[in-house]
Write a structure and sequence with these properties.
The structure holds two protein chains of two kinds. Chain A contains seven helices and six strands. Chain A is mainly alpha-helical. In chain A, the strands form three sheets. Chain A has a two-stranded antiparallel ribbon with strand order 1-2. Chain A has a two-stranded antiparallel sheet with strand order 3-4. In chain A, helix 5 packs antiparallel against helix 6. The longest helix of chain A is centred in the first third of the chain and has 56 residues. Chain B has three domains: 103 residues, no CATH class; 129 residues, no CATH class; 181 residues. The longest helix of chain B is centred in the middle third of the chain and has 60 residues. The chains are: A mainly alpha, B alpha+beta.
Chain lengths: 302, 466
């Protein structure tokens, strides 16, 4: 095939252009560290990478939810522990004052101590964390427990606040105060406030073995302690669930990040060797161009 | 046989080789002229002189100047140019659309951030900071959607402008072709081929093909008839006109055609190849498709969020109103996504609760709103918002990628066709220089012949002088 000057020039230009284009493309990958810099580099890969990123973000959100829930669970557990201590103290006092050797005067003096435990329990019931009352159900903007004429009034509701741990599961975080402290909706639930205030009355009236006497109250305190214990167990179970969920989320996030990296990131070794290959090819194109374009018959004619 | 014959042969040789040298000079001068076909003086030996049973040669004779053109390769080049023009225009448009979707950040991030903000709010529904953050992220999503739509709409406007320019160029070229037709007929009256005029016309025809994918038919008298998709563009010395000043219902240009006889037609859907074909195809189907998909995404987002928001209750126990300002129609929806002004003024209106009790800890509606991310929407063909967006982006990327490959392929075909054409018609300086030497030597030899003839005459004259 005959080659004219124009076609030779075109070919040389085309070769240099092509080499230059390839060089530019590799340089882009080196500079950004990414294999995919434009959608058209790998449309399918780009779409999959987006999907993984979205997935990764939602995993992060779930992790964040659990992180928000954990302090609440921890605080609940801690408060229930203190409640147990308070009730145990009350029980100790009641046991000692139930002893026949004690006088009515001793029992009357016990009233103050028991009243102290009552107040402590009230404070514990109104525990606030991060501006929110943890035993008020959904109505966590106002203190759930207040002393009213007929006893302690609960202003919260019976709901448990949930937080999602996956698209299909969620974790219950809070406990409604009326269930924990007043045994509402529980079969044979114990009302802690009621028990303590009845104990106060029994001590004041020196009633040891009557229907509402100290002995009866001791029995009720036992029931209360059991109730609190069962709630503590539940909280512990929730904390465990949260841990497990968090671990599996972390593992999933790690795998997702790995997949994304495989898809998006340029392999530095491969990219650098490609860069030097293209640089060499570009130089070769330029050199051969100069060798081919310059000589002509005119140089040799006199 | 006579000395006169010798002189005659010398004279003819001088004239013929002078013609050859001039033609070589013409070729050399045009080595860089695009579309030029090298010319060659057709040399043949003259009709011999018959003397008895002797056949005496009568020197060289020029049969005219022939341009070396291969009609086959010229036609091939025309076809390739048409498809290349289309691919190039399509590629430019798709690259523009691709630019609206960067590989990091952009719309998918904005959508994810919106749902993250909802999730944060569900963790603390009574919190003011989380509400303000949600409003911020929702408005950022609206802005991003608007920006993407705007970028793509600008691509469409750009294509429209390019269309006007291309149509104007076609309109300028058509009468030039018609004029060259007339000149070629006039020039070839003597029987010789009008090489340079034909070359000029061929260059214009290649440009026409690149712009419109037009087909060319050469008539028996050498005039070129140009058609595109059944529309007559040039016939003999008459040219049609194309006009792109009328604007259609969508505010975009349409192409009006008027034949040499005055017949009018709307040619917008008739030009399907060449650059104009590519511009129209992308402007009127590809780009609007992307815009519609984007609008559908925006409208569905606003509708589903508002619907879920409306079943909830805000911090004051009132039923939720609109979270996003409602959008009436799908067209243009992507530019209208913004948080309702009432909510912006009072973030307490964000309906996070499920009941009217006004409980600040009730996060159930906020959780339901967050879950919209994973809910399939019938309006999107039963996919989630994220999946819908990802398919849109994947589609844009795939088309852009295919178009890149297409252009590269067409370019390679063009280069190949050009190389083949050049093989027949292109000028090689070395070849012409060699020919120049040949013709120059022949010219020198012919001049020697004239001198010899002259000397012979002189000898004879001297012979008879007393």
């Amino acid at each position: 095939m005959r080659v004219s000057n124009q076609s030779l020039t075109n070919q040389v230009n085309e070769g240099i252009q092509l080499s230059f284009r390839r060089l530019a493309k590799v340089q882009e990958a080196v500079a950004s560290g990414k294999r995919i810099n434009h959608l058209s580099d790998d449309a399918l890969g780009a779409a999959r990478a987006l999907d993984l990123k979205s997935f990764s973000t939602s995993l992060e959100q779930y992790r964040k939810s659990i992180d928000n829930a954990s302090p609440v669970l921890a605080q609940t557990d801690s408060v229930l522990g203190e409640v147990t201590d308070v009730l145990s103290r009350a029980k100790e006092i009641a046991l000692s004052l139930a002893n026949g050797a004690r006088s009515a005067e001793d029992r009357r003096q016990g009233v103050n101590e028991i009243h102290g435990t009552f107040q402590q329990l009230l404070t514990l019931g109104n525990t606030k964390l991060d501006g929110r009352y943890i035993f008020a159900g959904y109505k966590n903007g106002t203190a759930p427990f207040s002393e009213g004429v007929g006893g302690v009034v609960y202003a919260g509701d019976t709901n448990e606040i949930h937080t999602p741990t996956s698209p299909s599961t969620s974790l219950a975080v809070t406990l409604p105060g009326n269930k924990v402290f007043q045994g509402t909706t529980l079969t044979a639930g114990a009302d802690l406030f009621d028990t303590l205030s009845d104990l106060e009355t029994a001590l004041a009236t020196n009633d040891v073995n009557g229907a509402n006497g100290i002995t009866t109250q001791i029995g009720r305190l036992d029931a209360a302690l059991d109730q609190v214990l069962s709630f503590r167990t539940e909280v512990a179970a929730r904390q465990n669930s949260a841990e497990v969920a968090k671990e599996s989320l972390s593992a999933l996030q790690l795998r997702t990040t790995e997949l994304r990296s495989q898809l998006e990131d340029a392999d530095p070794v491969q990219v650098y060797s490609e860069l030097s290959r293209q640089q060499y090819a570009f130089q070769a194109a330029l050199q051969s161009a100069s060798q081919v374009l310059q000589p002509s018959l005119l140089d040799y004619l006199r | 046989m006579s000395i006169l014959s010798t002189l005659f042969i010398g004279r003819e040789a001088l004239a013929t080789h002078q013609q050859a040298i001039q033609t070589t000079g013409h070729n050399l001068a045009n080595v860089n002229t695009p579309g030029f076909s090298r010319q060659r003086v057709e040399l043949s030996s003259a009709v011999p002189e018959i003397q008895g049973n002797l056949s005496l040669g009568h020197g060289v004779h020029s049969d005219g100047i022939r341009g070396l053109v291969s009609d086959f390769f010229e036609t091939q080049l025309l076809n390739v140019n048409g498809t290349l023009g289309f691919s190039q225009a399509e590629n430019r448009a798709l690259a523009g659309v691709e630019g609206a979707f960067p590989t990091t950040g952009g719309l998918p991030s904005a959508l994810d951030n919106f749902f993250s903000a909802l999730s944060d709010l569900a963790s603390n529904p009574g919190g003011q900071a989380e509400r303000v953050n949600l409003i911020g992220k929702a408005n950022a999503l609206g802005e991003t959607l608007g920006h993407v739509r705007n970028t793509i709409a600008n691509v469409q406007t750009g294509l429209d402008k390019d269309l006007a320019v291309s149509v104007q160029r076609v309109n300028d070229v058509l009468p030039q072709v018609a004029n060259l037709n007339k000149q070629i007929v006039a020039g070839e009256v003597g029987g010789d081929r009008a090489n340079d005029l034909r070359d000029q016309r061929q260059v214009l025809l290649q440009e026409l093909s690149r712009l419109t994918g037009a087909t060319v038919q050469e008539e028996s008298d050498g005039q070129a008839t140009v058609h595109v998709h059944g529309l007559l563009l040039v016939s003999r010395d008459q040219a049609a006109t194309l006009d792109a000043t009328t604007v259609n219902a969508a505010g975009l240009r349409s192409i009006s055609y008027q034949s040499p006889n005055g017949i009018r037609a709307d040619a917008t859907t008739l030009i399907t190849n060449g650059e104009i074909g590519g511009l129209i195809a992308t402007r009127d189907s590809e780009v609007p498709r992307v815009l519609n998909t984007l609008d559908q995404l925006a409208k569905t987002l606003v509708d589903t969020v508002n619907t879920q928001h409306a079943v909830g209750f805000d911090l004051d126990g009132n039923p939720g109103g609109n979270f996003f300002a409602p959008i009436a129609t799908t067209t243009g929806a992507a530019a209208q996504v913004q948080v309702a002004s009432a909510v912006v003024t009072d973030p307490r209106l964000i309906a996070t609760a499920q009941t009217a009790a006004g409980a600040p800890g009730d996060n159930r509606n906020a959780l339901a709103l967050t879950n919209l991310q994973h809910t399939v929407q019938a309006a999107l063909g039963n996919t989630t918002l994220n999946t819908y967006l990802q398919s849109l982006i994947g589609d844009v990327g795939t088309k852009a990628q295919a178009s890149e490959t297409g252009v590269d392929f067409q370019n390679a075909l063009l280069k190949e066709s050009q190389a083949r054409r050049e093989a027949t018609s292109g000028v090689s300086i070395d070849e012409e220089m060699t020919n120049l030497i040949l013709f120059q030597r022949a010219f020198q030899a012919a001049s020697v012949l004239v001198r010899t003839g002259d000397e012979m005459y002189q000898t004879i004259l001297d012979m008879v002088r007393p």
